Amino acid sequence: MAQEKIIVTSALPYANANSHLGHLSGAYLPGDIYVRYKRLTGADVKYICGSDEHGVPITISADKENVKPKVIIDRYHNAIKETFEKFGMSFDIYSRTSLPIHHETAKEFLKCFYDNGLLKEKKSRQYYDEKANMFLPDRYVEGTCPNCGFEEARSDECENCGALYDPSELKKPKSKITGETPILKETSHLYFPLGKFQERLEKYIDQMNLKYGWKENVLQYCKSWFNNGLKDRAITRDLDWGVPVPVEGYENKVIYVWFEAVLGYISATKALSEKNNDPDLWKRYWQDVNTKYVAFIGKDNVVFHTIIFPAILMAWNDFNETKYLLPQNVPANEFLNFEGKKFSKSRGWGISGIDFLKLFPADPLRYTLAANLPENKDTDFYWKEFQSRNNNELADILGNFINRTFIFAHKHFEGKVPVQARLEEIDNEQLKALEEYPVKIGNLLDRFKIKDAVLEMMNLARAGNKYFNDAQPWITIKNDKDQCGTTINICLQTIFTLAEVFEPVIPFTSKKIFNMLNAEKVRWKYAGEVNLPDGHELNKAEILFSKIEDDIIEQQMNKLGVPEGEEEKKEEIETISYEDFMKVQLKTAEIIEAENIPKSNKLLKLQVQIGNEKRQVVAGIAKSYKPDELVGKRIVIVFNLKPAKLFGVESQGMILAVEDETGNLNVLEVPKNVKTGTSVK
Questions:
Q1: Of 144, 155, 262, 365, which one's alpha carbon is 20 to 30 angstroms from that of 659?
Q2: C-alpha distances in angstroms, 153 versus 58, 120, 341?
Q3: Predicted local distance difference test score (pLDDT) of residue 571
Q4: Which ranges constitute the DSSP H helices of 52-155?
Q5: How far apart are CA 236 and CA 214, in angstroms?
Q6: Residue 568 pLDDT > 70, yes or no?
Q7: Is the pLDDT of residue 662 over 80?
Q8: What phi and psi, each to the nearest 5 degrees, are found at residue 522?
């Protein structure tokens, strides 16, 4: 059987902002899991991605900072690349559309279409800002959608309802540069006749779906575009940042980013050819009929990868002997929201990938996102779910099974794989499970059912724990060491299988497990076999997952801003009268003793001097201060507070403190020359 050859792409992220968890969940983690799995099967896979560095989002960011676009793309290309590396993305190359090889590729396609008479020149009226003396790209114009009434629609497309319209139809247009009402001014552009390809595109998608089973959400997006009828689209635009148009008379225009960005997959593979000093490498993947092409994207990019990119490739194939592949499948995901709302950088709602990975290892995040991928509908990331997945599944199920097995092997079998002496029914059932799970998981991954595959991976770990418990090696080690050896042998074989099948999802942990086993990965089809010979020497175990405490999660929750779509509300304050306030007696005091309260990680027991009186106060500041840091501080105390018991310790007052942005508490201090017991007014 010939080796399967696959080229896989993930959507090119705009290099104008850091990637957040929604981005990672949408187009990148699913692609990486699929690629890692396919490599384990022995497939010849090239995984391609890169930064999308042209277009108006880049120029808007540059305008805001009053810098050149190159400053923006260099900053965010490197930041996104770093995020992907720390997240464990296994790209063969992460390229950029600002590279000369991409410009050459995009120009080659446009010139081919122009020279063969495919492109149409049309005059159109576009918004022009007289104050700024420039034509305004769609993202620089905002107004009311003529279709749904959305008040933040772009000049030619509404992000709210997806409608496309002529710029002249936009209601109440405003320039985002000057705030002025722009005029409509005539300009010339080249247009790609997308409608000419509609019938072929519909037939192509029907064939691919029939043969490979496309996702229903992708088919519905395509259907809605076809129902509205595909129209000519401008392939050039009035902008000075992008790929220059290689046509006389269009020197001051650039190629529209919707056209050239998707060609970044091809140009990136060409860059990989150069990197590997293999000039024909890119052709073996893009122009070989035996290669399979899979494109991973989010739902906002469906039209570009199922309609526009295939139409561009069809057009090239019409005019050239060298033919490009069309996507065999486009397994697009829906959106991942954050704590029930859309990610919003401006409102501080959410967290970037790089900031997340500064706090936690990559694998617990990869696992949590994979177990909750928005495959068919929008899903949410919740901090509490992340904590639960890490603690209750990765640590308590997978990590616990591996740890208890290794402890037994090192304690009772000299750190070696014991002999399978004899097999009972319980042993045969577990060995059968090892054979079945990789097949089951592989079938799901082949059909892009990643969530279901992750569930089965963890189910195998559950089965390992159940087998360990039912076999009771802590008993058999005393009265039947041979049977105990068989149990530990099969548990170690199970760990090997777990390391293999989990590798696409938690690759850093998988590598650690294989190191503990003193073994190497095998082909996927061998994952369920007995891979560790009797007597094989094991390495020492290590803790694979650390528990995440509640206070760590609370800190992250406290950092959140205001969700998208919600106005920041003023805090509603219940007012009190002057007389009520005057009932509160605030006095200065000095902390003379401080100690921790057993079984509490938040409370400290303080002895304070208030004038001639000594009191005991319990304060929830143990996470902000060590006891010896507090002794000698002059503070403010609520003197007439009713006594209360906390953790069985009586408290006769309350000290005043201020919480900073990080959640730390800072006690209010008064000058040393102020006597204790002085009233605070």
A1: 365
A2: 19, 27, 21
A3: 45
A4: 56-65, 69-87, 100-115
A5: 32
A6: no
A7: no
A8: -125, 175
The residue behind tokens 């992340």 is: 386
* Tokens representing residue 281 in the block: 């490498």
Split into its structural domains, the chain has a count of 4
Whether 492 and 423 share a structural domain:
yes
Same domain? For 282 and 313 the reply is: yes
Is residue 603 pLDDT above 60, yes or no? yes
Per-residue pLDDT of 255-270, as tens digits, reads 999 999 999 999 999 9
Does residue 376 form part of some domain?
Answer: no
Specify whether the CB–CB gap between 48 and 8 falls below 8 A: yes
Q: Looking at the domain assignment, is residue 158 inside a domain?
A: yes
Do 496 and 519 meet the contact criterion of CB atoms below 8 Å apart?
yes
Do 72 and 33 meet the contact criterion of CB atoms below 8 Å apart?
no
Full-model pTM:
0.80
Helix (H) or strand (E) holding 613: strand 613-619
Least confident of 194-203, 343-352, 637-646: 343-352
Domain shared by 385 and 522, yes or no: yes
Classify the C-alpha dihedral 277-279-284-287 as positive or negative. positive
CA-atom Rg of the chain in angstroms: 32
Least confident of 101-110, 359-368, 554-563: 554-563
Query: Which of 333, 351, 366 is where one domain is finished?
Result: 333
Please report which helix (H) or strand (E) contains residue 401, including its range.
helix 400-412
What letter represents residue 31's amino acid?
Answer: G
CA distance 174 to 28: 36
Strand partners, 680: 586
Give yes or no: residues 522 and 632 share one domain: no
Out of 187, 203, 237, a domain closes at: 237
Residues 88 and 115 in one domain: no
**Domain contains 348:** no
Instruction: Determine how β-strand 379-381 pairs with β-strand 336-338.
Output: parallel
Q: pLDDT tens-digit profile of 368-387?
A: 999 999 999 999 999 999 99
Rounded-to-integer distance, Cα 530 and Cα 518, Å: 15
- In order of 428, 470, 486, 492, the CA distances from 425 in angstroms are 5, 12, 12, 18
Mean pLDDT along residues 468-483: 96
How far, in Å, CA of 450 to CA of 438, rounded? 13
Please check whether residue 200 lies inside any domain of the structure.
yes
